[in-house]
Every structure is written in structure tokens, then in C-alpha cells.
Amino acid sequence: MLIKKDKRQEQSFRPSLHVEFDIFLQQQSQRFASENCLKIDFHCHDHNSDVPDELWGRILRLPETWLKTKKLVKLLKDNGSQVITITNHNNARSCWDLKAKGIDVLVAAEFTCFFPEYDLFIHVLTYGFSQEQEVILNTKRQNVYEFLRYAAAQDLPVIMPHPLYFYTRNGKIDLSLFEKLAVMFVRFEVLNGQRDLWQSVLTLNWVQNLSPEKILSYARKHNLNPADFAVDPYTPKVLTGGSDDHTGIFAGQCGSYLYIDNLAERLKTTPASELALEAMKNGDVAPFGQVGENQKLNIALLDYFSQVATKIKDPGLFRIMLHRGSTWDKIGCFVISNLLLEMQKHKKTMKFFSFVHESLQGKKPNKLLKWQVSKDYRFCITQLEKIADSRKEGLEAFTDTTNLAIKDLFTHLNRLIAQRIESAIKDSKGIRLDSFSTEEITRKIEIPSQLTALFLGEGKRQDNMSNIRIEKLLDKLSFPILISLILAGSTLASTRVLYQNRQLLNQFAQHLGKNQHSNRALYLTDTLLDKNGVSTSLSGKLKEIQRADLPVDFLICHADAKPTSHLHVVRPITEFEVHRYGEQKIRIPDLMEIANIFYTGGYDRIICSTEGPMAAVSLFIQQMFNVPSYFFMHTDWVDFIKHTTDLNQHERDRVRRLMRALYNRYDGVFVLNSEHKDWLTGHEMQLKEDKVFLTSHHTQPRDVGLHKISKASIIPGANDDTPVLFIACRLSKEKGILDLPEIVERAKKRIPKLRIVVAGSGPAQEQLKQILPDAIFLGWQNKKQLTALYLGLDLFVFPSRFDTFGNVILEAFVHGMPTVAYNCKGPKDIIQHNKNGYLVDDIAGMSSKIIEYFLHPDIQHNMQQKALQRASEYQAEPIMQQFLQDMGLELPIMYNNQRTVA
């Protein structure tokens, strides 16, 4: 469904959530007199949460936490908790151990209950039960209805934690689930320290809008009796809070105030745990704390991953094979366990993970350590010191400092990786980055089944991609790569966990009619400022987005560009040139920086238009935020390789399969011509029909203040009647420019005065100058210079056979210049044969049509008018409107079709 939103609402999505939730917390803080309140964290875990809900954790034999009970209790007390409870999964062992030691504790557990009709497991926080009741509860939890009816009959208060977060996704979950929850629960956790603010605000607004009439109508609809669950529809729901802490970092910093009248006197005769239970049953609860969105969970997962790296044991191949789960689950667990077990052999890496864990717990690394490590890693120690110091500065400072340190560590380590690779290449006698060829890269795609063969060669045979000593390079890279993977993995996992049910959150917000996520796309590209046709078309798209204030922002990686409206710029970690293909730079962006821009910018979908590093980033964003992703194909790389390399069919098929795997990862692929769409949906690429969208570039309005160039000013001896061909493109082999000498030579036999003007630059420029000595070469021309050339010269010639569109054809049409091109792909979708240009099959046909055009002046005038008419059919508004609608976006109401092409 397409949703129209006010631009201001989109930009204020997350700030508005913060304001709304802060107001709620402020109101809650004023409900009860503080002297009559007990402070409790209703939701926290220790080492007895030893069987995780996540499948991979069970396969790998990983507990949810290694946190000792004693440490958790101390942390809770240090953070002001006056009542202690521990809500481990499906057991209260820690609570019973504390009671055995004479410590007052509110017995509790977080039971995993099965919802049969949704094939769904949900959590239920349960309090105040006995050991005998715990056994029965564990039996009843196989059916959530039986569990909750038993709890109600035994007067055991329960809380529905994180109501919008589930540990799985399936198509059976719908809004009817929440109708049943409204009938079955009195208490809902609206503040969870490890969950997303959006989920918290949605839960809050949903619960507060549960009127008695709604609850009763839900009960009738689903044949449920509220009394069976101790629910009184006419009594307001109870809102609670808890930290959901597993690592001993945030416990007690989120929770609830429990109101007990005349508390001081009551405490003299009644244990705090009993008073807490009384307040729960009475509904005298007020949540407190902060929701840190993904930042807190990111810190918790980093701490958890650091401990996993040092504590994981071999789960056993046979056990993995026999465990419940899909084949991919088992393969993933096998790979991860082997990676981590190999990592444990690397002492430097293990020490670093230990330091990370200690820093997150507030313990600084040894002062001498900074001088013992190499200067490349002193930065890492400095960041860990900052993290440890920030524990003393409060929750907000610690959260901000740690997340900033994670980002800075990631950037520093990736720069170090790039420097070491560049240094290894420079010191070797092998290939250089700027000499990479498509053939070399493609032929090395085949990966040996034995890693030793890949890295070290087989025996004395050295058939690697270079003479670089791979084993030495890997030794230098293993530490920064492994740490970077853990940092990126914790960031990805923390956000992915929160947004794994994004579709449900969107539906829920739509149902509520508020708190709907902003609908905006982030457009990643490597080529916006390059000198080629793609950059020209992208620049036109950006200008239209800026002009109409459309819900799309571009992001580029560039060392010198400045950000503007609708344009983000990130600086590259490193960059290198591929000289063989012209002035083309490969820039490696900072992944964490782009992820942060996506998050803070309120984007909910991503599009990428280049298959290089930005494609990897787009897929990372897709997985991290669970958002729709799209790819815009500007280049047919299989055809490109066919025209620029000597690879055989088998080797080209490798590229095709690689491209197929890449494009299949996206929710949609945009193509620029019908032939390309047929190819992508055909047997070779096998994309689904509904995933491939046909689009086009749009024209940009002609600058009416510019005038045509005089032919005599650029061509010696020419006058206004001199017949002149014009070509503007990147001067490279695949553009077909090496056909030009024969085309011109053939045409000159009938039109001796024919001249040709060439605008552009590229790797084949010098070769073309040698074989076409009479041509006028102008080099790269800006837009104003090109306009004058289009207006002043006669016929555009386009000999490329691989272009997916041919943006220069549209540029020529905008200025009334017809085009002759080969009858292939992009050109045949734009040019109407014998109306605004010619479509030909070969060099002879192109020469013949050039002769026909110049020998018939009446044809020239008619084609010029038809070219202008055709250009008017490629206006920005309808093309951009369809483009955004195909991504599920809608343009602003004010966007209209009033612009015309001059």
C-alpha cells in the first residue's frame, strides 16, 4: 500500500518517538510518591538462562549468558533495586539458590509458551510461584492458554514482555494475535532496555487504546473468557518496565516503581518481595528508564560475542547433523564453530576479546599494555580505555561512548587492513591493483576446495593471483579482519534482531493509525561524479529529486565531494584506480558510517546502482535492517566482458552465475530496456517477472539561454553547410568507437566533405586518434559545451552494441539532433526507425543511412522535429513517479506534470 506523508513527518520520525515516550515516562514518574515506592528490575537474566531460545545457540551449545548470580545481584543493588528478582528462561534456579542463602528474592522466571494456532513461541514473565508450581508451569507452557489459565487460578501475576518482538518470523502472525493478547493479559512490558524505541511506543499506544469495548469484542470474536485469565476489561492495563539484561551491563537501569501505601512501616513486618507481589497484583506499577534502541543491544551482543569467542567448545559434527534445524542452519553453525575454534588458536585475538569484555564491565586494560602492543593497535587500547572510563559517567554517556568507539575501531581496523594489502602489493613483484584486468579477476573466481591450495598453492606451483606471499599477508590481516567481523557482526545482529518482524511493525502502526515509519529510500552509487553516461543520468535523477523534494536521498563515497540537499557523502577508507578502463576509481566506503546514516535518516528501503563495494554495503543494510532492497542495472557486465575481453563462453558463464546470485538477493531489479528485462527473466538469469521493473532515464530541460556552436570554430575550413557527425561518449573499445574509421570512410565516398567531431575521453582515445586522424577530438565536455555541440552539429552517431540505454541519444533528441545507432538493446527502445533516427545492423548499414540523411534535406528537418517530439516522451515526472512506485513509495501530492522540454 502506498502511503502519502508530509515531509516534516518523515524527517521527525525518530525524534517524535523520543518526545512521545519521554512525556510518558515523565507522567509515570509523577504517579506515586517516591518514599512509598520500591524499585525493581522485572526482567533480567544470569548464567542459569543456559538454554537459549535461538536455534543456533542451542546447536552450538551456547548459554544465553555466563553472568554469575552474585554479580547480577550486586549490580542490581548498585543501581538502586530494592527488590531482587531474576527471570531466567524456564527455570527459577537462581531464585531458589538465593532463598536458600536467606536472601529475600521475588521468585520469577521467563517461561516460553507455545501459541498453537500461530506456530509461535512467546515469553511470559511469571512471579511468586512455588517449586511445585514451577514444575506444573513448565508442563503447562506447551499451550499458552493452559499456562495462563493455571497462573490466573493460582493468583500468579504474569507480564507479557516485549509484545512486538518474537524470536521467529512466520506468515501466521497477524493482528488477531494481539486481539487475543489483549484478552489474556493484564500486564504488558512497554519499556524493555534491550528493544527498539519504535516497538515500545507502538506497544504503549496500543495498550493505552484498549478500551473495555474493544477487549470484550475481541473476547467474543475469539471465543475467550477474560475471567479465565484474571482479566477485568474495565480495569486499565498495567504497564511495566525491565532491562532484559543478559550480560550484567544494564541490569537495574530500566525497571519499575512499585507503590505500597505506608511503605516504611510495612517493611518492618513484611519482606520487600511480598510487598512487590502485592503491588503487582494491585496494578500499582510505573516503569522507568531509557530505551536505547539498537545501541544497548549492540553493546550487549558485542560483550556476548567476545565471551563466545573465548568460551565456545566444539559442539561436535555428529551432534550438529542430528540437531533440529534446516540444512542451512547446520551449515552456518558448522562454519561459525570452526571459525571460532580456529580463532582461539590466535592468542593476540583472544586477549583482545578478553579486554573488550573487561572494558564493557568497566575494567581498563593494564597501563603497560599500550606500550607493549605495536603502534598500529595502540588506537584500539585507547578506545577500550574510553569505554571503561565511561561506565562511571552514567548510562547515556557509556552507551554513546561505546557505540562511537565501536564505529571508530571498525574504521581504524579497516584502514589498517587496506594499508597492509596495499603495502604487500607494493612490496611484491606481482600484479598491482591498477593493472587488474577483467580476465585475471574472472579466471580466478574458481575457488579450490582445499584452502591450502587457495592460499599457499599446490607444492611448488604458484598459480595465485599474484606473487604476494599470501601466508604472510594473512598473518598480518587475521587479527584486524577477525575483530572487524565481530564488530560488524554485533552491529548487524543487534539491529536485525529488533527488525526481523519489520513487516508486522508496519502493519501494526498502520492499524493504530500512528507511529508509522517514514517511507524513504537511500540510493547508493559509486559513479555520480564520474565522467560517463551513467553519472550524467544519475546527476539528472538527483536534480529532479532535489527540485521536487522526493523521498529519496543519494549517498556516494568520495574524497572531495561536498554533501548537499538529498546527497550524503562519506569519505573512502581507501581507493585505487583501474587505469585500463579509463579514469575509474574504486572507492571502499566505511560500512558503519553508512549504516548509521541509514538508521538516523529514517530510511526504510535501499537501492544500489553499481555492482562494486556499494553492492556489498546495500546487502549488508538489507540484512541489518530487514528492509526491501533494489538494484538499478546500468551495465550488462556479461556483454561488457564479451566485448572487452578474450574470455571463452565457460569463463563468461562464471560471471553470469555470479551476477545471477547477486541480483537474486534483491527484492527488485530496475532495467533500462526490454531486451535486458527478457534476458533477466529468461532461462539464463531466472529472475521472477514481478521482480524486474522496466524504467528509463529522463530528459533534462534544455538551457534556452545557450546557442549552437559555429562549425567553423572547431573544424578548420568548415562552414554552416559542412556535414558533420557527432559522437559523445566514453572512448573505450566496448562503445564500438573502433568501427568509426570504416563508417566514416564508407560515407565519405558519397559525401566527401563529411567530418566527425568526437567528445569524451577514455582508454581507447589515443588509438582512435591514430586510426581516425581527420576527426576533431574535443576531450571531455561539460553540459553547456555539449548543448552547443548538439545544437550546432548535424547527426549523432552511436556505434555501441552493449549499452543498456544510451543516455546520449536522449540528450541529442532534446536538442533536435537525430541519431543513427545499431539495432540493439537500449537504442532500439528509444529510436523510432526512419522517424527520429536510424537503427542499423552493421557498419555498411550505418554508412548507408548517414549518406541518406545528408543527401535528403527534407528528411533532416522532419527527423529533427520528431527527435524533439520523442524527447518530450521522456519527461522526469512520469518516469520518476513509476520508479518510486515500483519501490513502494509515492511522490508528494504537489509533484505534477507541468514541466515541458524546450
Structure summarized in a few sentences:
The protein is α/β, with parallel strands linked by helices.
Task: Reconstruct the topology from this structure.
Layout: H1 7-11, H2 13-29, E1 37-40, H3 55-59, H4 69-78, H5 93-100, E2 108-115, E3 120-127, H6 131-140, H7 144-153, E4 158-160, H8 175-184, E5 187-192, H9 197-208, H10 212-221, E6 238-242, E7 255-259, H11 263-267, H12 272-282, E8 285-288, H13 294-311, H14 317-322, H15 327-343, H16 347-360, H17 369-372, H18 375-390, H19 395-427, H20 438-443, H21 451-456, H22 470-499, H23 502-512, E9 521-525, H24 533-548, E10 552-557, E11 567-570, E12 574-578, E13 584-588, H25 591-600, E14 605-608, H26 613-625, E15 629-632, H27 637-644, H28 649-663, E16 668-671, H29 674-681, E17 692-694, H30 711-714, E18 724-728, H31 740-748, E19 755-759, H32 765-771, E20 776-779, H33 783-792, E21 795-798, H34 807-814, E22 819-822, H35 825-830, E23 837-840, H36 843-855, H37 857-871, H38 876-886
Parallel strand pairs: 4-5, 5-6, 9-10, 9-14, 10-11, 14-15, 15-16, 16-17, 18-19, 18-21, 19-20, 21-22, 22-23
Antiparallel strand pairs: 1-7, 2-3, 3-4, 7-8, 12-13
Helix pairs in contact: 2-9, 6-7, 8-10, 9-23, 13-16, 13-19, 13-22, 16-18, 18-19, 19-22, 22-26, 25-26, 27-28, 31-36, 34-37
InterPro entries: Glyco_trans_1 (IPR001296), Glycosyltransferase_grp1 (IPR050194), Pol/histidinol_Pase-like (IPR016195)
GO molecular function, one term: glycosyltransferase activity
Domain Glycosyl transferase family: 716-867
